């Protein structure tokens, strides 16, 4: 994973560090759907991903929304249906600047989202599409020579999509998401280990963080689990962990997610919490083409109508050959002096709880103002 993070942060093309560029995402929800894209996505990933993983649903939606600007017919209908993108694309575009202001690298939080579309050198990209992609979606359009493989970026893209791109490749869409923050905390110890129980007989000593904090907490008795919400410094983002009460309860918990959007889970009770978390880094490369096809977005990849993306003479032959996301999250705190008198954003707690995440759990990073999930995933251990 360290290699993944190094590759992701250092890729340049003609001096442009497009993958480390801070960009914005769509905040629009589809109120006509009984289940959200977040729920649908997790139902696919819980079977596909066997270990720990991280993914950004909102960033997938924002990246795919770029294509709605340049597609028509079944193609755009499939994209909008599967990703819950509203028919009024302009509404998506106009919400972009808010996140451009919010998603910045600060001394306490790093949130980086980058999107790039890599057409082959022979394609003539529609000028209006290029302008809208860059202005509204902060997407770089970088032409590559797939036929002669003369660009360094091609070998890296091959690693992400899990296959060697053929010389006939026309379009590749890549999205990257990175998150790291420091928790808003009181007394804290980050210099010890805990036994992490991944399963029966599968116990590993892992580095951990122990914090005494005021947090939001909720028992989830109906699904035999509990949830805690921990604010990061700056209070723009929070880490929500849903922990099964039983060591082997994660599979049952994931099954409970069917048809339910746990990302919208209300966690309101303020408690004085002793929180013990494993330190972890998760870096996941996902072939979104396979995932989205399982959800029904075949029109994106099978004979798409891309009349608004390329010049009309080429629109009948252009294909989206690959769509990948590289997502990473790091939970790791440096030791700080123990101190009292911390100012927290809530009133006096009425209960003390211990929350020890020493077995597999679900997590998501939520943006405070909108409630949107920037990242979600599963931690199964090292």
TrEMBL record:
Residues 39-382 form the Serpin domain. Pfam families: Serpin. SUPFAM superfamilies: Serpins. GO terms for molecular function: serine-type endopeptidase inhibitor activity. Keywords: Protease inhibitor, Serine protease inhibitor. InterPro entries: Serpin_CS (IPR023795), Serpin_dom (IPR023796), Serpin_fam (IPR000215), Serpin_sf (IPR036186), Serpin_sf_1 (IPR042178), Serpin_sf_2 (IPR042185). GO terms for cellular component: extracellular space. It comes from the Eukaryota. The keyword Glycoprotein does not apply. Belongs to the serpin family. PANTHER family: GH10112P-RELATED, SERINE PROTEASE INHIBITOR, SERPIN. This is Serpin domain-containing protein. It comes from Timema cristinae.
